[in-house]
Amino acid sequence: MTCCERDGTASHSAAGAIIEVLAVFTRLGLTSFGGPIAHLGYFREEFVVRRRWLDDRTYADLVALCQFLPGPASSQIGIAIGVMRAGLPGGLAAWLGFTLPSALLMIAAAYGVASLGADTAALHGLKVVAAAVVAQAAWGMARALCPDRKRATIAILAAVALLVWSNALAQIVIIVAGGMIGWRVLRSGAPAAAPARLASFDRRLAVGCWIAFFGLLIALPLARTAFPFHALALFDSFYRAGALVFGGGHVVLPLLHAGVTPPGWVSDAQFVAGYGMAQAVPGPLFTFAAYLGAVQTPTPNGWVGGMLGLLAIFLPAWFLVIGALPFWNWLRSREEAQAALRGINAAVVGILLATLYTPVMTSAIMTPLDVALALGCFGMLVVWKWPPWLVVVVAAGVGWRVGG
User: Fold this and answer.
1) Does position 115 have pLDDT exceeding 70, yes or no?
2) Contact 301, 183 (CB under 8 A)
3) Distance (Å, whole) CA 356 – CA 182
C-alpha cells in the first residue's frame, strides 16, 4: 500500500468517525426529552451499553468532570465523548447534532410568541407549567445536593441573600461564598477515588482555552462599556451566564433573567412563557438562550439574535471541557476542590429556590386556578412521573380551554 493510499484510508476513517458521531448525536438531539439528568441516562445507554465507546468507569469520571465545571453538563459530556471518539471535529459534530434541533425549535417558538404575544391563554398555561418544572428541579436538587444540615443551611442563606439583594452580581458573590464556605467546612476527610484516564490533549491547547475563558470573562464587560453595541452586550450577558452557572439546566434561569429582563430586552411574560416551551423540546435546556436572543426587542433579534445567543452561552462550555480534560486526574484527587464544589452546589440550590419565587411564580401564579394547575403539573412530574413534554401539552391545553 502506498503512502497516499494509507493517508486516504486514514482520512476516510476519520471522516467516517465524524459522520458517525454527528448521526448518533442528531438522533439524541431529536429524542432526548426530560432534561439534563435524563440525558445522562440516554448517553450511558447509547455509548456505554449499546456502542461501547467507553466503559462505565470512564463514563462516570466524565460525568464527574462535567458536573464539576460550570456550564451545561450534558452538553459538555456530549462534546467530550465526541472529542474522544473523533477529535475536535468529533466534538463539534456532537455539539451540532445534540443542540441544533432544539435551538431551531426554540427560535421558531420565539417567532410565534412575537406574533401572538406572551399573554395568550395557551402561553399562560406554559408559564404555569414552568413554575412546576422549576419546583421539581429545586426539590430534586435539594435532596441530592443538600442532604445534611450544613449544606441545607448554605442553601437557605443563599436563597435569602438573593431575595434581599437581587441582581446578577449577587448571584456571582453567592456562588463564590458557597465555594469558600464549602472549602472550609464540608471536607469529608476521605480521599477522592482515583479517576480513569480520559482524553489526552496537548496541554498548551488546554492552557490556551483557560486563557481565552477568563480573558473573555474580563474583556467582554469592558468592551461592552467602551462600545455600546447591543450585539456585544447580548454576547457578554449570555457568555457570562454560560461561564458562571453551576448545575446547568434549570440553574441558568436566574442568570439569564438578570441579563435580559432588567434592561427591557425581554418581558417577564415572554421569559417565563419561553421557559415553559423549553420543557417541551428535546435536547439541552441551554437552547433557551436561542429563544431569548430571537424574541428580544433590540436588534439583532430573530434568527440572527437567536444564533448569537446560542453561540455565546455554549462557548464557555467548549473552553472548559478542552481546558479541563488534561488536568482532571490531578484535580479529582484534591479533597479541598471537592469540598468547595459541595458548597457551590448547595448555594446553587438556594439560588434556584429564590428564582422559583421571582420571576417564575410572580409572573405565572395569578389566581387560585393557576395554583391548582401548578400543583397538578407538579404532581404529574414528581408523583406520576409524566414526561415534561406531555405535562407542557396538558398545561397549554388547559390554559387554552380556560382562557378561551
Assistant:
1) no
2) no
3) 24
- pTM for the complete prediction? 0.72
- Long-range residue pairs from 49-55, CB within 8 A, at least 24 positions apart, any chain: 51/24, 53/81, 53/84, 53/85, 54/81, 54/84, 55/196
Whether 94 has a pLDDT exceeding 70, the answer reads yes
For the chain, what is the largest distance between any 2 Cα atoms, rounded to a whole number of angstroms?
77
Q: What is the CA radius of gyration of the chain?
A: 21
* DSSP type of residue 193: P
264: left (phi over 0), alpha (psi -120 to 50) or beta: left
Find the helix packing angle between 203-226 and 230-244, rounded to 10°: 140
- In sequence order, the 6+-apart residues with CB closer than 8 A to the CB of 404 are 121
Count CB atoms within 10 A of the CB of residue 197: 11
CB-CB neighbours of 136 under 10 Å? 20
Highest mean pLDDT out of 114-128, 191-205, 207-221 = 207-221
Residue listed under C-alpha cell 448545575: 247
Q: Is 311 exposed, middle or buried (0-12, 13-18, 19+ CB in 10 A)?
A: middle
Low-confidence winner among 71-80, 172-181, 384-393 (lowest mean pLDDT):
384-393
Q: Are 66 and 341 in contact (CB under 8 A)?
A: no
Instruction: Count the neighbouring beta carbons within 10 Å of the beta carbon of residue 117.
Output: 13
Contacts from 259-267 at CB under 8 Å and sequence distance 24+? 259/168, 260/292, 260/296, 261/359, 262/167, 263/233, 264/297, 265/234, 265/292, 265/296, 265/297, 265/298, 266/292, 266/295, 266/296, 266/297, 267/118
Nearest to 137 by CA among 358, 390, 381: 381
Helices (H), 149-189: 149-164, 168-185
CA angle 91, 48, 287 (to 5 degrees): 45
| Residue type, position 259, single letter | G
Q: Is the pLDDT of residue 239 over 90?
A: yes
